[in-house]
Specification:
With 591 residues, the chain is α+β, with helices and mostly antiparallel strands. Helices cover 24% and strands 38% of the residues. Strands 11, 12, 14, 15 and 16 form a 5-stranded antiparallel sheet that branches. Strands 21, 23, 24, 25 and 26 form a 5-stranded antiparallel sheet that branches. A 4-stranded antiparallel sheet has the order 1-3-6-5, with no helix packed on it.
Length: 591
Amino acid sequence: MKKIFLVLFVSIFYTTVSAQVKFEAQTERSSYGLNERIQLVFTINNEGDNFEPPKFPSFKAEGPFINRGNQTAITIVNGKVTQKREISTQVIYYLTPTKKGTFTIGAASIEYDGTVYKSAPIKITITDPIQMPTYPGQQPTNVNYGEGIHLVAELSTKNPFVNEPVTVVYKLYFEPRSTVGNFRNFKAPKYDDFWSQYIDMKQLRAERGKYNGKDYSMVVLRKVILYPLEAGAKTIEPFKIDLDAEVPTGRRDWFGEYEMRVIEKSLSTGTQTINVKSLPEKGKPESYSGAVGNFDFNVIPSKTKLKAGESLDLEVSVSGKGNLKLFTLPKPVAPSALEMYEPSHTENVQTPLTGMTGKISDKYTIIPQFKGKYTIKPLTFSYYDLASKSYKTITSKEITIEVEEGDGTVVANVPSSNKQVIEKKEVFQYNKLKTEFVSKSREDFLGSGLFYSLLFAPLLLIPIVMIARKQKEAKDADVVGNRVRNNNRLVKKYLSEAKKQMGDKVPFYMAMEKALHNFLKAKLHIETVEMSKENIVELLQQRNASEESINRFIELMNDCEFARYAPATDIAMTNDFERAVERISELEKQI
């Protein structure tokens, strides 16, 4: 019997001790150098409230940083397996000593289940600076966060000829461990003395690249094609941008991973100078009009045999690669017996990264007035070829137009913009092809269908108004339904408010908590005083919500509650907002 009582006593004592709440403070060592950084961890083996830290008069403190975790303890007694879920909370401070000596860090306090618990004081000795070891939590000195981020303007050439394309690619280089985003305040150059064309970037995508011989991640932000319009030293203004970057701090956490910090960064490419060379005067043809590139030149008539009064089209076109929009096409000269009208100009030009490519053309409408043979003299087109560094000239063939006797009728395909010129000649006039009739007798309004419709419309509205009124009265009498609808409206309102307050921690998380609470009110039909976590879990289980969904929702509520009193980044707030939308949608489908 004595042995049985002894076993029972030990078992009861062990159970009582294990159920006790433990709250303690710890540091890695009791002695540190003046240049070291100290991690102070307060741990409670449960969830606590109203944490009060001690004072740190001889230290610079960073924090608090809150970590919460849970684990399952397994006990086997006489072959019976018992599982128990244990919860722990850590409040972490990083301390930097300001002077040497022995200091006592006082007790911190925390409240759990109505009882206040205090940690034991800790003594720390600060000595002369020591050679910094490599251990988790180490903080390097003189760190310039974000120094591994560079904005660069890469030019295809800095010594182009006039009208030679210059490609400018604006690239952002950053360390592979970093991330960048939230690009804003773009300030692009004006590109004076250049013809410019932007190439749209449909999607920003990170790629591998090298900068100053080192491996970096690289994003192309913008591409521009420039054509210098005159010779001389030309300045390209800086391209500026602001962004947010998540960069490594240089220290590691207790799991050996690099700790990251979100910073704001303003970047600029700086001013660049391009020395534009004049095109050579030697060998420049008289017909040269400024074309630079590699081109084909064609003069093509739509027909060469026709009757007097009929029309033909004469197309003068240049196609190829070069500054197609920056020169004029040669103009044909026709005999006086051929009426030639102002041309219609068309362009089919693309501007890829290598420069303009495509075709431009002028189309002339020509109408011969008399029988005979008429000659349109050859046209010449000259351009400067960048590949051979020389001028080239293309000459079209002579065109002979044979005109037969006409019947006096003029048939022409003339652009609408030139019709006024032709009408003044009074050679022909346009026929109206569509006849429009207007009735002589008019129907009176009195006795018409519209008259009777307007007369009886008010009578038809009476039953509609009565039905709508009854529906409104029934809706007003539905107190529970109105409360649910109001709470649903508040969920959307507070989620919208949280999105607007993104970046401002306290109002953001207050709006998030209100959105989650009103969602529970709408779905569970409870009031604020009934909103304990145990009651929420029980009601969600009764409505067939899955255990996993319930745990994730409660975890989100806890995170929002703790985040109001701990540091939070824009990235963390964005993640919490997306989690809230996902959790609400998930539970909405289940219950």
